[in-house]
Amino acid sequence: MKVFWLAVSVLAIVSCKEELPPDDPDVTVTDYESLLSPDTSDTGTPEVQLGDSDSPLAQCELKWNYTIPLGGNGNHPIVDDDGVATITTGNACVRVKSTGTQHCNAPFLGASNSGIFGAPTQNQAGTIYFGSAKGDLYALTDKCTPRWQSPVRVVDEEKTGKAPLAFKTAPVVNGDEIYLLDDRPSLHKCFDNKSNGICGNGTDSFHFWVNDDPLENATPVYVGSAKPFVAFPTRKKVMAVDPAGSLTWQFSEFTSSDDDFREVSSSLAVTTQRKIIFV
Fold first, then answer.
1. Which residue from 206, 111, 97, 185 is spatially nearest to 142, judged by alpha carbons?
2. How many CA atoms lie within 13 A of 31 on its CB side?
3. d(CA 31, CA 108)
4. HEC string of 42-62?
5. What per-residue string of b and e applies to 199-226 under the rule 16 or more CB within 10 Å gives b?
6. 3-class SS of residue 193
7. What contacts 47, CB < 8 A, 6 or more positions away?
8. Does residue 3 surpass a pLDDT of 70?
9. d(CA 12, CA 6)
10. Which whole number is the average pLDDT over 183-204?
11. CA–CA separation, 1 vs 79, rounded Å?
12. φ and ψ at 15, to 5 degrees?
């Protein structure tokens, strides 16, 4: 098992044992599926024993590390099927091979408000997407060659006063559809038409406005089926929007009581049964 991690601007890969220890009958593990059932009364308390020398967690070794030469604060890496890791920093996108050597890089040395603060995502064709602090969407090839840069525009932006804010989380893709969550937070849908990105201005893209506090690193998730939707968290809600830009559902346990103040505090995970798990 290989684990990629990023600290400041250093990418490292750690190799661990792949064998998992046998189940311990004395350890109670949370049944996360049952957490979604309204009649769950006792799900137990999980225990993690990191100090056990027989645990795979204690039998890992550093294989290599790679210092990103272009500087900036790195985001969490993504890894493709060829083992190449992609990292965005404040001013660059860098790809590193599984051997620890650089595959390619694309520096972005524009104005201070055009920094790259969100993590990247990659589609099955290899195209890499990420947003910027300026509100632009970038597309790169897997060789770090820029394909296009598209500002996310809103119809009647001057009249409504609504404009995209900084994109600081990874987009989520489905085919040629790209969904981005800005810092308002609001959800934006764009298209990759091969020659450029289409984001607004009367196309089938949309802008779904939310009046709530943003959640840091709240990457949206795409849940496909006969009735697909894109879900994303805010501080007080989890919301789902269909591909046409209409609200499908929302969940909130927020109350105005000081004694019952509940907030969402994590990104979303999706089970194979299309259930959403979060903290």
1. 97
2. 8
3. 45
4. CCCCCCCCCCCCCCHHHCEEE
5. bbeeeebbbbebebebbeebbbbbbeee
6. coil
7. 27, 28, 29
8. no
9. 6
10. 80
11. 13
12. -105, 130
- Gap between the Cα atoms of 132 and 5, Å rounded: 22
Distance from C-alpha of 201 to C-alpha of 153, rounded to nearest angstrom: 7
pLDDT in tens, 78-127: 999 999 999 988 888 999 998 999 999 988 755 555 688 889 999 999 99
- Region 19-41: mean pLDDT is 50
Output the six-digit token pair for 187: 């959800």
Residue 126 gets the label, from left (phi > 0), alpha (psi -120 to 50) or beta, of: left
Give the CA count within 13 Å in the CB-facing half-sphere of 170.
22
Distances (CA, A) of 114 to 34, 109, 229: 44, 8, 30
> 112 phi and psi, to 5 degrees?
-60, -30
